[in-house]
Fold each of these.
Amino acid sequence: MSAPLKLGPQVRAQLEGLRTRVRLALFGRGAARVVGVLLAWWAISYVLDRPLRLAWGTRTLVFALGLGLVGWTIWRRLIRPLSRELPDTELARALERANPSLQWRLLSAVQFALKAALPGTSLELTEEVVREAETLASGELDHAPAVPSQPVLKRVGLAGLGLALVFALSSGFPSEAETWCHRNLLLSQTAMWPQDTYLELVSVNGRAMAEVGQEIRVPRGADIELAVRVREGVAPRRVYLSAEGLPGADAPAPFDDLGPQARQARYRLQVERVPNDFTFWIEGGDSKIGPFQIKAVIPPFVDAIELEARPPAYTGRPAKTLTLESSSLSFPSGTELVVRARVSKPLREAWLTERATGAEVTSRLDCTLSALPGETGKRVLERRWVVDHTVQLTLSVLDEDHAELPQPPQFSVVAVPDKAPSSRLELSGVGLNVTRRAKIAYRITGRDDYGLSAGELRVEPGGRPERKEPKEGEKEPKPPEGGWPTDALQVVPAEPAMTGPEASAEGVLDLKTLRLEPKMSLRLWAEVRDGKPGDAQDGPSATITLRVVTEEQLLNELLRRLYEQRQLLEKLARDEDDLGRALASQDEEAFKRSVAVHHDVGRTLARATKEISAVITEMESNDILDGPTRGRLQTEVVAALNLLRQNELSLATSTAEAVQQAGEAERPGLAGDAAQASRDLADAIRAIADRMGRIEELAEIVAQLKRIIRKQRALMDKSKGE
């Protein structure tokens, strides 16, 4: 308790001055201690958090401990000391110790002033002591020894130096200071210390993290593939996965380094058969990301997949529904394909991933979802598209638990392009040389997978002779019979119309209508057309080129071919004569080869008959020789050869076989019969060859007569023109 007004103002001033000095010293020492504790907390939190990247919970604990220590220091070193009373007696005693010259008179005055109101206290003595203390207090008293300032200033200086150092470091490293403030004062969960490496979880099972989210839902029992890349900074040598709640993951699991060939992810790890929920972190270098939550849910599965195919109408194929039993299905290009599937769980979305053959880029085809009758959840998916190229498809779904199919179905759809139709042109009755009056029989055969719509014969003359302009004074040349020749393309529609998958048409092309001249050429080919609407395809056949010749040239060629066949017949007759003589002489070698010789003769006669028939047909088609001559060739040569093969040749062959099969005793008699049969066959062949020679001579005579007649007509026309 302070003394009443009995103490003088000088004593009161000295006591108040010392009280102020004491409180300033207490405040300085307490503030320096608080600053020291703050600096220690800053240093400890920085040293721990900077290299260790403390988690939010640990940083919160350090912050709470530091805040508590600072509060306790403020209470103990500031609030409690400054709130204490400083009695006048203690202050006077301190002044007495600091100023020995007072000889305890100041303390006595304060004590007497406090006891002045007590009974038995002498007021005169009290006033005397107080006056003496007032006199002494009026002089200069030294307060410093009572409250030394050097220790206080030293502590305050050290605290100020620490604050200055912190300010300098903050100014020199502002990003580090800002990060420390956000992490350790504001307790931010996103602020990160500057690192050499920044890792990023790119995808889970190929799906980007933006689609997956922090809580990653995967089918229970399925494998998950984690892809990590270095978003910024130095690539660490190793990247590890740390997990909680995953059986068998007691130690960190290393990622596979994909190396420089990786495009988006540099590291990959596959966690097999996830059994339950777990939490994981990813660490590499000085980077640690996480936690990420894996939630294992019951996976969906596909009950059934149907494919409804509707081929284009022009193919004539009906629509059909297939079950997905094969990994590869083929459909005509332009087919409308509908994929329907039923899944065991309600869906959020479903899609088909499409990848064209040989391409790396994929595209997504979203499916429409619908509910089964009586259900609210959408478990049925459908996708329609038109098949125009070969693709590989993968069906993916995402159910309401964000779970996917453990093994998405994959299948290929092969687009079978509509091939152009094929055609074949066959000519009969002509060879490679024709006359300008020939009639060519042709046959067009066409084929197409889905059906033909039309067919035609195309005729293109070529090599038209140049028409010479008449000189001055000369008359305009008279056009040949039927007009001047043309080289324009001629199109002859096939009749009847060619329709259906396979069709044929026949016809006769009369070359008179083309007004051809000798030495011109003629190109013929067939073309058929399919029924593809808007984009019909043509199928041309191989081209046949014919040469236009005069009647004499063609007749000479045909007579040459007849002459070759006549020579062949004469040779056969000689061979049969030789065989007959050998058989008559009982030659063993003749017995052995006689049957084979007759077979060779039969094959040669068949070829000769066919060749002679072809010559006769060409004569008829090209309108050369007269009908009786052609008739004689047909009856006296072709028909005779057919009869010869049936009669004389058959008899000679049977007798030769009898000789080969007979015993030694019977062979001489049978050999004579076989020899006679061979001679008869030779005579019959020779007779036919002689008739061919006479007919050839007649044909040459007829041809010469025709040439003479044409020359006479040409001279008459010339004389009339003049």
Amino acid sequence: MDELLTNINGQSKGPLSRLIRFCLENRLVVGLFVVLIVGAGLYVAPFDWDIWGMPRDPVPVDAIPDIGENQQIVFTEWMGRSPQDVEDQITYPLTVSLLGIPGVKTVRSYSFFGFSSVYIIFDEGIDFYWSRSRVLEKLNSLPAGTVPEGVKPTLGPDATALGQIFWYTLEGRDPDGNPASGWDLDELRAVQDWYVRYSLLSAEGVSEVASVGGFVREYQIDVDPDAMRAHNVALGDIFKAVKASNIDVGARTIEINKVEYVIRGLGFFKATSDIEMTVVKVNDNVPIYIKDLAKVSYGPALRRGALDKGGAEAVGGVVVVRYGYNPLEAIKNVKDKIEEISTGLPKKTLEDGTVSQVTIIPFYDRTGLIYETLGTLSTALSEEILVTIIVVLVLVIHLRSSALISGLLPLAVLMCFVAMKAGRVDANVVALSGVAIAIGTMVDMGIVICENILKRLDEAGPDDNALDIVYSATTEVGGAVLTAVATTVVSFLPVFTMTGPEGKLFKPLAFTKTFALVSSIIVALTILPPAAHILFTKKVTLKRAKRYVLGAILIVAAVVAAKQLNWWIGVLIGAIGFYHLLRDRVPKKAQGLLPLLANILA
């Protein structure tokens, strides 16, 4: 590694040394690079920041990593059939056909009363949407007779098992937001199925909105076997009659007074009376109607589950996020859509005069868990950076170098966020933990380089070129720092070879820690030396009037910081302000102790 920096004669000619020299001689380029890092880092940072209306495209955020497999679901409905019939005529033929798809790891199937579910699990390296395309291609090319006539297999939503991000119920509420009755379960289910569901489906990032609970209203024909026997009518005759009657039919056109009219018959059912007047059969020129054979009424469809809230049945839905989309952003889009449609939900006036309006009430919202996770990690990162700054201040006893080393951490963290966005690594509790773990190692490189620069500046003569000193001090330890980071990165290679759920769980941590370490070495070798040259070699002198103005500004800032942030931050800023105001009144013998006192106070 040292060959990257020096040749036999000790002259630095390696690529790394040339990079360091370039950064020292082109500080404007380095400054623009820093601005670019800060802007890009704030643009993609996973935290829910609102920075002066700045447009943001954050890293996808979730509470926990998705360790599920690449799974596609094929659902087939065959009403009224037994599980054995479904297994023999749907599940088994589909399973055999889907096994031939490239990249399939295994196929699992389940047969139930009236429907079949086939789960196709693909290899880990197969792209999610590529696998969906192959499944659709296979379903559309099934040979005739593979499944019974009229049965159509459908592909499930493009989501994973962890995609349920938002659950809600529909409830009647008065204008003050208090619960109000007056709504039946079938009415709420109709609002959910025909209004709320379609509105939420239009939100960006939503793959599916499934309805849960309540009753689906339907026309029900309860036949009388005795009446059917008396009129010599079979059950199939009723099926055919009802099916043939519930349809609009088109005819040709007729021209009257040079105007062409389209002739068509309107036959869709509008009420139960339309079904009752359907002719099933004619016996001896006497029509037999449905009302003569059965009772027609509204009723609930057969259901296999219910939604319970507080011990009472409720109607609601679940929102599923699309695969690869930011769950936090999807929930925000859903909430915006709910706010948009809330005023248009139906309302009714109850007998006591209370106006009850259907209201969407969430009862599971993953943003709470996501914000708690991000808040915990944000606090941990802030506290770790603060503790690291304190340790650096105590050990280095040099305020400017401490500030420089401390500035390395947030800059490297922002660069790590950019790498996460580019590498498609989602932010979750495991991934962000890698950044937190790497902070202790990240600061070491800045300490080593700053200490060596300070040591070489103290040993240098008054006529020595400060830029050459900073350059030689950086190249002297640059190889060792790079070797140390490379050793740490190489130690994570076994983690990158993990597959399956273990790989999906631990790879994000290895990626983020590697990103953080590489970011810190880039900052330490390209940004820190020019900044050290400016801070350590330029002596800033202020005239008395400017010092007084600066001191007054710092005291005002201290009051604001004490009220808005924390009292000790205000004390620190105020102490620095009083130092600038009172420095001329301090004896010259004591002025040498002021920098030490400032470090101790900091």
Amino acid sequence: MKRFWKKLGALGLAGVLSLSAFTPAGNAAHRPTSMSPNGMVTTPHYLATAAALKTLQEGGNAVDAAIAAASTLTVVYPHYTSIGGDNFWLIYNAKTKELRALNGSGRAGEKATIEFYKSKGYEKIPSRGYLAANTVPGVVSGWWEAYNYARKEMSGSKIPWSKLLEPAIEYAEKGYPVSPNQVYWTKYATDPTDNDLKNLQRFEEFRRIYLKPNGEPYQAGEILKQKDLAESLKIIAKKGADGFYKGEIAKKIVEDMQKNGGLLTLKDFEKHTATWAKPISVDYRGYKAYNVPPNSQGMASLSILNILNNFDVKSLGEGTPDYYHVIVEATKQAFADRDKWLTDPEFADIPVDYLLSKEHGQELAKRIDMKQAAQTVEPLDPKGDTVWLGVVDKDGNAVSMIQSHYFDWGSGIVAKGTGIMLQNRGSYFSLDPNHINHLEPGKRSFNTINPAMLFKGDKPYLLYGTQGGEGQPQTQAALVTRIVDFGFSVQDAIEAPRWLHGRNWGASSNNLKVESRIPQDVLDELIKRGHPVEKLEDAYTDQMGQSGAILIDPVTNVKFGGADPRGEGAAMGY
């Protein structure tokens, strides 16, 4: 992909102190850390960041800004997220000093059963198509629940709901310049030689909306309009969540699905609700790391830190073979627990407190051999394309939020007449009735997405998260260790070389993928210890996901924001 710099000055956003411009995956340039005395936003797309920053400047709080950004992302980053997906939130209320978790993930439809798929001859749920879209989209319920909580309980929120969706509606109706990242993933998804995971042009609405009339992908900078999506957003702006789950949109989605053999019903939509939960946490070097509880894999992200507590990571040296080795080995142990236990807690008793206890962390740490990579602790194969965003407002309210429709382009199905890409999160359910994450009606699937916060004392110190399915817990560990143990700035921590243990979306094998900037002598030592290293061509690649972070100085209250050069994000403050 060619370099594509998108300047935001024309948007007339006053008071921007620093802007991290986009440099695509490949050999990216260093960006400055963005700093601000008041609010700070970081998202994986500059237009979403601009929408959120404008919301803060007009008097909205962190939740308002997060909704403005998240809704914009469903338009301008359609390959990574959509209204037809899920979200999870961590919301810090500065007035009450309370941190809350919100689960905006959807449940399997009432007709989604193992028996149904088996009767059709399936040994696993298809990854694409109508039968992959077997869970209710949870995104709008998450937005709506968070908005109403903020209105009742948080300070600084005066902006009407409908106004928060205005940027998204405008970009959908009038168009936005297609980004190089979208060009890349459109070409990737329309490979005609792969009729299972790619070749998405076989789906009529995908082809009509995301490809030009001649069947070619849009090029970077060309304007893409999504008229049906604009109309759906207008309904949601006017009627809130009921406009999606109990009105015209749900009817159109269900009608299209039933015409094409899909499973979701109007009852599935009408019954859906987002749910509040108590965040889960572990201590790390005098800080407290928080995440969201199951059905999210947030417990795996925390488990890695809980294991690393038993090692003097700083003395190992950042970027050394020992550094990479210990985090990869901790990841294997955390993933083994995750794969054994993780599912919808309404359908299973998950011993989260035990799994995140100091004692269990010590037990897992003892299994790690610093001279030899474990060969028998294998992860599962969750894939994913996702967006994480972070917002801190002038009053200290903070949001760490993540949103996804699972694979790039989700199920590949855009419900006719809605412009809404439906997720394929439910394709990760197992059809083995003995599997912990087996399919059942009304059940939430194992979900890879997880937003994070690190507290110092009783206040947020670091908001962080990333795209990347299996890579999310690993990248979170990289960010925390580099900032806490080695004193990196947020931008340096984001840009530092990354790795991915396991299988990412589209890969054919479980191995240890590494960016090319990691020195060869370090890789040689990792290979010597038994790691199946695959050195990628790019110095910076979005195979490692697109991450972001905001650090809040507890003394000066200055916010330091970072955005990932592996994508098209921007960290902006005022």
